[in-house]
Specification:
The complex is a heterotrimer of chains A (69), B (471) and C (461).
Chain A lengths: L9 H10 L7 H20 L23
Helix pairs in contact in A: 1-2
Chain B lengths: L8 H9 L5 H19 L2 E4 L1 H18 L9 E5 L26 H8 L3 E6 L33 H8 L5 E6 L5 H6 L3 E4 L19 E6 L2 H11 L17 H4 L8 E5 L9 H16 L3 E5 L4 H26 L6 H8 L6 H9 L1 H12 L5 E5 L8 H4 L7 H8 L4 H6 L3 E8 L5 E7 L5 H15 L11
Parallel strand pairs in B: 2-3, 7-8, 7-9
Antiparallel strand pairs in B: 1-3, 4-6, 5-6, 5-10, 9-11, 10-11
Helix pairs in contact in B: 2-3, 10-11, 10-12
Chain C lengths: L14 H9 L5 H19 L2 E4 L1 H16 L11 E5 L26 H8 L3 E6 L35 H9 L4 E6 L5 H6 L3 E4 L19 E6 L2 H12 L5 H4 L8 E5 L11 H16 L3 E5 L5 H19 L1 H7 L5 H12 L2 H23 L3 E4 L14 H7 L4 H6 L3 E8 L5 E8 L4 H13 L11
Parallel strand pairs in C: 2-3, 2-4, 7-8, 7-9
Antiparallel strand pairs in C: 1-3, 4-6, 5-6, 5-10, 9-11, 10-11
Helix pairs in contact in C: 2-3, 7-16, 10-12, 10-13
């Protein structure tokens, strides 16, 4: 979790945006995204990991049961 | 007279309860057979004869004093090596967990204990339950009891091999993309992946929080039904275990299939069907007609989406669990497992959220469409004869996705839908290897699947054929 | 017929006081609504609490309320009481722009559930209240939205707190008797704190989110902002119809209640403003004098850790919800919304899932803490309302709070006014109760409010 993270380049982020349907973002927004990317990545990697593998996530969405419909 | 170790689980339980045979005799007979067959099949990671004999002794003593403690009294079982018991090593088929000893007891094990069952040892599995072939670089591949050069299927590989090879009367496995149904169908036994949330997962190794299921493999429909009945149901320790009442699955085995409607998926799941395997499955469909059930053929929706959605959810969640080990124990993973896992890093939170969010809608639409006028959906297990181990051991090579995808082609989409799926033995190919089909049902309608399967089994008797191996 | 109390304007008093006047026939619903509309005409040009005002509709609703009252028919205690809803709520026939160019011209055909419920109860909707774009923000003010930014009535050079900016401004300034907002990581409680109000959130599922533009499915909750605790109790009584009326529950004395006072750990956030801290400690003593059993307690983790978890969950879910807008119309968004969605698009699935795992552990640990008491007291925001658009105090106000733990854990929480700073800016604290026991939080808040004079002071606009 403390390995140095390489700074994403505009090229990296443009490729990322293309892969994820964001290819129509104007250049200035891609540039801003590049600025944000290192921060987001560090925030994600820096989050402490729960100690036990068995710790499940909080429910994100309810899986509807037959009687719920 | 067939040997004790060839009896069904239910027949053996009846015999023990009636004191026609002791638990000790059954366990000893099984241990003898294991000693001969285990080197051929590699179904077990570890056998614990002392513990098994001690448990059998206790079972006999208790039977004498108080009668049977439950419907599995004195029955030797063995489980995929991923269920936790305090102080007992659980390897999860991996190097990383080779020396891991948990300090909690899995709810499913507690329930089997309460029903009187005995544990023989820990069964082989794909590393961290990841892999549909049954190949394992750390412990060796499990082998098919029908021909040891062929795969067992995975990831509950040892479960398929042990139950098919008569080295255990039943086994708990897990299924996230086919890992109970594949080894069951490939090894000629029953295996049920129940509805998402039917069985508690407390105290078991996780692969995917959203798609994992635990369920039994056993030789007959009734055997499988009995085991499911013991382990199913709500659990305070597992909030995802649904508080839906548990049906009497064994009783359902008596009802018969007359008047039931079975739909056969003709698209996607039947693509590239080998003509010989197709023939065996058509015979099974003809048999339904004899049983008084009607068969209709139709296309089913969403298979394109289900593949991708399941992949996003499973690989993101699997990756999450292994994130830190991947960094600190990179080389201790099999290359195949590592490669599959790394796909998970390419997904964004948005991808994951969308995949999770649409699940109830797609499921409801699928159920409304398919089960509007059918009681069960008939799918193949494999579309080709059971392959040889050598032909599928592709590691992380360029054909990895293609080979693995072809194996779990028919099972994978069902996990995302969360619907119950039961593998049913349907005969054998000319090469002597099993052919199976899946019955898929409405949410929490496992009883329907057992009803159809048991009726089919009575008529066909496939479960009586034994593998020809020594011991 | 009806005789209005002309000694002070009607908007100065609490909703409950207006309710009593209505029920005693001393004022009509029409007069009440006219009074609020007059107040809006008088000062909303300076505080910008409304995005869309619906005058004719409101007067018509007020007249309908009066006709029913005349016929002896009372739908609820809120009959005839004027209110506003944040502009991310749908109201049939009214613009629902959520403060955004992306939704200009959007006029829904169905009411949000809570709006329908309040109107069915006879309350009078005045209009749609100001909000940060899409009911979300990043703590900064960029003055780049299609509406003028709402202003804090206590000092119009200052921020109202967000994202339910107009809800905060309106109830403090008297342009609405009560308001409904929404809260993901503080958006009801922050404006309540900054504007000297009562703000309440309940666990998800208690109040319906139907018809409210979603921001983050796993954290969003609606919530009322009111002048007094009694007002909040009445609104919740009408919306939830509990077996034991909140309005009656809050009259209970708090002697003997076990209250945990949580001053930290604050982690990265540093200390509260001296005025906030002083008011907090004095407020604790007031509870003590009323017989509450006070214990020192601590959060099971630094509060900044809770905030970090929300930073992975919130933007990701927003990015999933508003994916199409980001893809096609990013240039039409304000900076705050766009930045959040860009960041949310970058989060890995693995990190989001870890955040939800961490969330569950934090929620369990926080629940363990709260279960040890009848209620716990914490700071709300650590700072007073900042000057609008001035950094770093703007972002510090929004970020440095003790609000996020209870979004993660889904406990009921009440923010209330604990006094005013030397510059006459509202001070606040937060009262948190066990998951099905919001009545206790309201009760503690009411006991504190009864023992203090803060509700007699309105902004000097």
């Amino acid at each position: 979790m403390t390995d140095p993270v390489p700074k994403p380049t505009l090229e990296d982020i443009t490729a990322f945006a293309r892969r994820h349907g964001l290819d129509r973002l104007p250049p200035e927004h891609l540039a801003r995204m590049t600025e944000l990317a290192l921060n987001v990545s560090e925030l994600g990697r820096g989050l402490p990991r729960p100690a036990m593998k068995e710790d499940p996530p909080a429910p994100t969405f309810e899986f509807s049961r037959p009687d719920d419909r | 007279m067939s040997e004790i170790t060839d009896w069904t689980l239910v027949a053996t339980a009846d015999a023990i309860a009636a004191k026609k045979v002791s638990a000790r005799e059954v366990t000893d007979a099984l241990l003898q057979r294991i000693a001969v067959r285990q080197p051929l099949l590699n179904a077990y990671i570890s056998v614990d004869p002392d513990r098994a004999r001690a448990s059998a002794r206790e079972a006999d003593e208790r039977l004498a004093r108080l009668g049977p403690s439950g419907p599995l009294h004195g029955i030797p079982l063995a489980h995929k090596d991923m269920f936790y018991r305090p102080g007992v090593p659980v390897t999860c088929g991996s190097k990383i967990r080779r020396d891991f000893k948990p300090d909690i007891l899995a709810t499913v094990l507690a329930r089997l204990d309460a029903a009187g069952a005995i544990t023989m040892g820990a069964l082989n599995m794909s590393e961290f339950a990841n892999g549909p072939t049954g190949v394992n670089v750390h412990y060796g591949a499990a082998r098919s009891p029908w021909n040891p050069e062929h795969i067992t299927g995975g990831s509950s590989s040892g479960s398929g091999s042990a139950v098919g090879g008569r080295l255990a009367y039943g086994s708990l496995g897990s299924d996230t993309g086919g890992s109970i149904r594949l080894p069951a169908g490939i090894c000629g036994v029953y295996g049920i992946k129940a509805t998402q949330g039917r069985v508690s997962r407390y105290g078991s190794m996780g692969l995917s929080f959203s798609l994992d299921n635990i369920g039994p493999l056993a030789r007959t429909a009734r055997d499988c039904a009995r085991m499911l009945g013991v382990v199913a149901g709500a659990d305070d320790d597992d909030p995802t275990a649904a508080p839906v009442p548990v049906d009497d699955y064994e009783a359902a085995c008596n009802i018969g299939a007359k008047g039931l409607r079975i739909a056969v998926a003709t698209n996607h799941y039947w693509d590239g069907m080998d003509s010989e395997i197709g023939g065996v499955l058509e015979n099974a469909l003809d048999m339904f007609g004899k049983l008084g059930a009607s068969v209709s053929r139709r296309t089913v929706p969403f298979h394109e989406e289900l593949r991708g959605l399941g992949n996003i959810v499973i690989s993101s969640e699997f990756c999450t669990l292994h994130d830190d080990w991947l960094r600190n124990h990179h080389d201790d993973y099999a290359p195949l497992v590592r490669a599959r896992m790394k796909q998970g890093y390419t997904f964004t939170a948005v991808d994951y959220l969308k995949a999770v969010q649409v699940r109830p809608r797609i499921t409801n639409a699928f159920v409304d469409d398919v089960f509007g006028d059918a009681d069960a959906l008939f799918l193949p297990v494999l579309r080709f004869p059971v392959p040889k181990i050598a032909d599928v051991d592709v590691r992380d090579g360029p054909r990895m996705n293609e080979i693995l995808g072809s194996i779990n082609h028919c099972t994978w989409p069902i996990n995302y839908l969360g619907l119950p799926g039961l593998s049913v033995p349907a005969g054998f190919s000319r090469s002597g290897l099993p052919v199976g089909f899946q019955l898929v049902g409405r949410p929490f309608d496992e009883a329907m699947l057992f009803r159809i399967a048991a009726a089919y089994e009575r008529e066909t008797g496939w479960t009586e054929r034994r593998p020809e191996i020594a011991g | 017929m009806h005789e209005a109390n002309t000694s002070k304007p009607l908007w100065v008093q609490s909703a409950s006081a207006s309710i009593r006047m209505l029920q005693e026939g001393r004022v009509s619903a029409r007069q009440l609504t006219e009074a609020y509309l007059a107040r809006i005409a008088e000062i909303d040009g300076r505080i910008h609490s409304f995005h869309h005002l619906a005058e004719a509709r409101a007067l018509s609703a007020a007249d309908a309320a009066d006709r029913e009252i005349a016929a002896g028919r009372w739908r609820s205690p809120l009959q005839g009481i004027p209110f506003g809803v944040k502009d991310n709520y749908d109201v049939a026939g009214l613009p629902a722009t959520a403060g955004s160019r992306l939704r200009s011209g959007n006029v829904p055909t169905r009411d949000a559930r809570l709006v329908a419920d309040l109107e069915a109860a006879g309350a009078v909707l005045l209009g749609k209240l100001a909000t940060w774009e899409y009911g979300t923000g990043n703590g900064g003010e960029y003055f780049d939205l299609p509406f003028p930014s709402a202003r804090n009535p206590w000092d119009t050079s200052r921020f109202t707190g967000g994202s339910s900016t107009g809800a905060g401004a309106s109830v403090a300034a008297g342009t609405a008797a009560f308001a409904l907002g929404s809260d993901t990581t503080g958006s009801v409680r922050l404006p309540a704190a900054a504007c000297g109000l009562v703000g309440v959130i309940l666990p998800q599922g208690r109040l319906s989110g139907h018809g409210i533009l979603p921001n983050c499915y796993s954290l969003d909750v609606p919530g009322p902002l009111t002048w007094t605790v009694e007002d909040a109790a009445v609104v919740l009584d009408v919306l939830l119809a509990p077996a034991n009326s909140y309005r009656r529950s809050i009259t209970r004395p708090i002697a003997g209640l076990r209250i945990g006072v949580v001053r930290g750990p604050l982690g990265r956030f540093g200390a509260p403003d001296a005025s906030v801290e002083q008011a907090f400690e004095e407020a604790v003593r007031i509870l003590e004098r009323q017989g509450a059993r006070i214990d020192d307690a601590r959060l099971p983790m630094p509060v900044s850790d809770c905030f970090d978890v929300t930073r992975l969950i919130g933007p990701s879910e927003s990015a999933a919800i508003h994916e199409a807008e980001l893809r096609e119309r990013s240039h039409e968004m304000g900076f705050a919304l766009r930045d959040k969605l860009l960041a949310g698009s970058l989060v890995r699935a693995v990190d989001y899932i870890h955040a939800q795992r961490q969330r569950r552990l934090m929620a369990d640990a926080i629940d363990d803490l709260v279960r040890g008491y009848d209620a716990i007291i914490t700071y709300g925001p650590l700072h007073v309302a900042p000057r609008l658009g001035v950094e770093p105090e703007m972002t510090a106000f929004t970020v440095e709070t003790v609000l996020t733990p209870f979004n993660l854990s889904q406990h009921p929480a009440v923010v209330q006014c604990t006094g005013y700073s030397a510059e006459r800016l509202p001070l606040s604290w937060q009262i948190v109760a066990n998951r099905h026991d919001e009545a206790t939080a309201l009760c503690v808040a009411a006991a504190y409010e009864r023992a203090t004079p803060w509700r007699t002071i309105r902004p000097a606009l």
